[in-house]
Known about the structure:
Blueprint lengths: L1 H44 L6 H26 L4 H10 L1 H7 L1 H16 L7 E4 L2 E8 L3 E5 L5 E5 H6 L2 E3 L5 E10 L4 H13 L11 E7 L5 E10 L3 H18 L17
Antiparallel strand pairs: 1-2, 1-5, 2-3, 3-4, 6-8, 7-8
Amino acid sequence: MQNLLSTIAEWATGTGIKIVVALVVLLIAFRIIDVVGKRLGAKLSGRQKLDETLTRTLIYAFRIALKIVVVACLVGYLGIETSGISAVIASLGVTVGLAVNGTLANLAGGVMLLITRPFKIGDYIIAQGNEGSVEDIRICYTKIVTIDNKVVWLPNSSLSTGTIVNCNGKDLRRVDLTFSVGGNDPVKVRKLLLDVCANTDKVLQEPAPFARITDYGAGNGVKLQMRAWCHASDYWDAYFNLLDGVQQSFDANGVVVPFNQLDVHIKND
């Protein structure tokens, strides 16, 4: 018992203290790295010459690399033989590679997204059956926020190989609306639509708005299409403003919008 107690006391005063010191240093170092990374990111994000997407990704990778260096230094401080660890890592390399095959694909996809730059933070994209504003681009996943404030994480492997619609790829976007009218002069309706475009907030007059007959509907009047341009950031405001304006103009000028009808005849024998 005395030998056991002396062994425990010797371990506690030697290796035990080293482990405690290593844990304290680990926690403090990780905290400092996180704080410095956040402050550096906040400082660099305010500069217009630096791209926000690339800045965030590089800072994130920088933080991970520093943490790995800290862990490697603490392993050496504790006196753990690294050659054995290297052998274990080498023997498990194939297994780990198979296990993280999807993660590696996402990692490669993230690198491709940073190189090709199909979108950046703040863009509104449609991809993989989801659409929303890009809030963050990580190494393996891209975070978007939908219109109803849902967070969706998209794997970068699918994004880099799939179809991406970037609604903010250009400064201007076009609003396309189609209306059916019945029993009214199409020329008059066309003029009303152009007047609405000229007096609607967020709608640009250059390029000029467009309104023409596109089809003669079977049983539901004449179809006219209206096209108006706006800034990409104002798309939804212009879209709903135009709908409100057209409804008010049609009501004020007695324009009839035909709806599908069903006539039911009851036969009495």
